[in-house]
Amino acid sequence: MKLCIIGTGYVGLVSGVCFSDLGNDVICVDKALKKIKKSDIVFICVGTPTKKNSNSADLSQVYAAAKEISKSIKKFKIIINKSTVPVTTGDEIEKIISKKVNKKFFSVVSNPEFLREGEAIRDFIYPDRVVVGSNDSKSQKILKSLYSPLISKGAKFLSTKRRAAELIKYASNAFLATKITFINEISNLCEKTGIDIEDISIGIGLDKRIGSRFLRAGPAYGGSCFPKDTKALVSTADKFKTNLSVVKSVIRSNDLRSDLLSKRVSLILNNKIKNKVVSFLGVTFKANTDDMRDSSSLKLIPFLSKKGAKIKYYDPTGSKKEFKKLKNVEFSNSIKESIKGSDIVIIHTEWNDFKSINFKKFSKNKKLIIYDMRNIYSPNKIKKLGFKYFGIQEASYLYLLLL
Ligand code: UDX
C-alpha cells in the first residue's frame, strides 16, 4: 500500500520504518505535505503536548496537518490519526477536511500507538493488540489488511468505533499510571511496617486478574506520555462533566512522590544535607532513553542543590542542559568518577550499567550510603560489604524512630 506518515518524531519514524519493512511504499514528511498526493493512507503522527497554563492537550499540530491534508485529496484516502488525542478529535479532523473535500473521498480513522520509548520497534512488531477505530467498514477492512503481517504473528486486532479507539489510548496510559502509583503508595506502607515491597509486587502480580507488569515501585513516573495523558484525560472528562476522581488522585499522588523521596533523602542524611557529596546515578525518567521529560530527577536534584549538597551526576546518555545553571551540580564522565569521594549514592534510573557496581572498588568511604530508588540491589549483599543501604522498602527503621 502507499502510505504517508506526517510527523517524524519517534512514533512517526518508527511506524514509517516498520510499515516499510512490512512491504509498503512509505513516505515520511514533516512539513512538505504536498508529497502526500499519491498515498492511499495518511498517518497523522504529530505531537500533542500539554497546553501552556492548562491540563488539556494542544491539538494545533493535528489540526494543521488535517488542514494541509484537505488540500491534497484528489482520490479516496484514509486519514489515520496515531497522535494521542482526546475523544472527539477525530470528529474535528473530519469537520476540517470536509470543508474542502466531499465526505465520500475520505475516511478518518483512529489507530492509537502503544510504543514505549527505547522499545518502540519491538512494540510495533510484536504488539499485544492493534486497535482500529473507524465508523466505516471499508476502512476497517483496509486497515486489517495493512496490519495482517502482525496479526498473523499473533497480535490481536480490535475494531471499534472511532471515539472508542481514542479513549482506549488514554485509558490504557491512565490505568498503567494508576498501577504504578498504587504500588508506590503500597511501598510507603511497606516501609513503615518493615515489609519488602518486592514480595507484595510478586504476590499480587501472580493473580492473573492483576498481572505482574508495571508493579515496580520507584520514583514518581515520568516521561512524555503518562504525566501528559493523565492530565489530558481528566481535562476531557471535565469537559464532559465527568469526575475521574481515581485519575485525579493518581496525578496528585505522583506529583507528591518526589517531595516524599526528597524528604527520605533528608532523613537518611539526618537532615544534614549541606556540603554532603551526592553521587546521582541516572537522571532520565527511565532507562534506555535520553528523555528528561517529567523525570523526577528534575525535582530531586534541584532540591539537593538548594539544600547545599554537592551533586555529581552520571547518566549513560551524557550531561543534561536542565542542570547547567544549578549550583554545585556537575556531570561526571563515569560511574566511578561520580561515586569517588561521595557520602551517598542515589540510584535513580534502572540502567543496566548500574546493576553490578563494585562499590568497594569505587569508594574508599567506609560510611558510604546507598539509596537504591529502583530496588536493583539485594540489601543484604550491600550491607555485607559494610555499607548502609536503603531501597524503596528499606527505610523502615528511620520511620520507626520517628513514630
Ligand atoms: C508509555 C507507555 O508504556 C506506552 O504504551 C505509551 O505509548 C507511551 O507511554 P514510556 O513513557 O516510554 O511508555 O515509558 P514506560 O516504560 O511505560 O514507563 C513510564 C514511567 O513509569 C517511567 O518513569 C518508569 O520508570 C515508570 N515505571 C514503569 C515504574 O515506575 N514502574 C513500573 O513498573 C513501570
Report the major sheet: 6 strands, parallel
Shape: elongated
SSE run: EHEEHEHEHEHHEHHHHEHEEHEHEHEH
Number of strands: 13
End-to-end Cα distance: 66 Å
| Portion in beta strands | 5-15%
Strand order of the largest sheet: 10-9-8-11-12-13
Q: In terms of per-residue confidence, which ranges show pLDDT below 50 for 5 or more consecutive residues? A: none
Structural class: alpha/beta
Please explain how this structure is put together.
With 403 residues, the chain is of the alpha/beta class. It is 41% helix and 15% strand. The protein has helices spanning 10-21, 60-70, 89-98, 120-125, 137-146, 148-151, 162-193, 197-205, 226-239, 245-268, 297-306, 335-339, 359-362, 379-384, 396-402, and strands at residues 2-6, 25-29, 41-44, 77-81, 106-110, 129-133, 156-160, 277-281, 310-314, 329-331, 344-347, 369-372, 388-391. The strands form three sheets. It has a six-stranded parallel sheet with strand order 10-9-8-11-12-13. The protein has a five-stranded parallel sheet with strand order 2-1-3-4-5, sandwiched between helices. Strand 1, helix 1 (10-21) and strand 2 (25-29) form a beta-alpha-beta unit. It is elongated and about 75 Å long. Uridine-5'-diphosphate-xylopyranose (UDX) binds next to helix 7.
